[in-house]
Amino acid sequence: MSVHQKKNGTWYVAFRVAGEPHPRREYFGVGPHAHQQALIRDAEIKLQRVSGAAPAPRRGSTYLDAVAQAYIIDRKTAGASRRWLIEITGFLNNHILPALSTTPLDNLRYTDIIALVDKKWGNRTLATRQRYLGYLKALFRFGVEHGFTKNNPLSKWRKTKEPKRNLRLTLEGLELILAHAAPHLRWALEVEWEIGTRPGPTELFDLKWDDVDFERCTILVRGTKTHEANRTLPIMPEFRDRLQKVMREQGGEYIITYKGKPVLRMNTALRGACRRAGLPYHVRMYDIRHLFATVMLANGSDLAAVSKLLGHSTIATTQAHYYHVLKGEMSRALATRPRLQQQGTRAGTTRDNSTA
């Protein structure tokens, strides 16, 4: 239990609750009045501790930090991955709650949310901004469903359809990146190329050595995005041997680490490798997953099998993203048409001959 101040001047109280892995935070805004409110709340929690009671919620209006705390506990109970929990907790504590937890939840408006997102991530990609808004919409929906508030300022927000991004990465480009990558990045790219998971904390960086069945040559991917995302994938014997070698050398719990610790992203390392490789185009970790699927389909692999490997909810999703690379599909479709009896002969000539 203690009172702290963030770099932006926001005062908050941090305290622990039994059974929760991270301290709770309650935010009070900036300035002397906010500092005074934080001191009062800290004293209140300490008094509750002395009497043997668990810290009770703030009196008066409900604030977003209370909903966030309940939401994290709910997601943990539901089996959300440790990586995702770390990511969402950091996102909320570092960016959202300090800005939005000083206004009662019932008074938050859509314009407050959009202004915050624009201020913090206005120069980021549309996909990034929409991902963060998606997190917030889920949080507000949870608050409404569990009786914290009747107000969901993002209830009418919908994702904007993102323009399709042309895949420019090639096998040659990937090999160049590998040649210039730091060891931890090179290993992450190798794993991604072998099994094509969703890169990031939900799948690729959440893989554990316990997920590998070395005897059966399979690996369990604990996906969270769709009902098909949780899947057991085959691995090639050569990659199985490579996994065993790295496990002996690296140890630990997770397959992909940096200096012995789990990772959440490798964007900076990837940008550096691409720069050193001299690639004239931007590359994301997701591009390796797309290349994984594209090469298999272009070489005639079964669409349903690739869809299962990717963890797509339906084969239609895979078709929508990759049909243009299916080897010879349009040519085979044209070849199914019957040939015309008089093909190569002008219709007018045939009629003239029949009436002569």
Automatic annotation (TrEMBL):
Residues 339-356 have a biased composition (Polar residues). This is Phage integrase family protein. Pfam families: Phage_int_M, Phage_integrase. Belongs to the 'phage' integrase family. Residues 62-144 form the Core-binding (CB) domain. One of its GO terms (biological process) is DNA recombination. It comes from Nitratidesulfovibrio vulgaris (strain DP4). Residues 337-356 are annotated as: Disordered. PROSITE patterns: CB (PS51900), TYR_RECOMBINASE (PS51898). Keywords: DNA integration, DNA recombination, DNA-binding. GO terms for molecular function: DNA binding. Residues 164-335 form the Tyr recombinase domain.
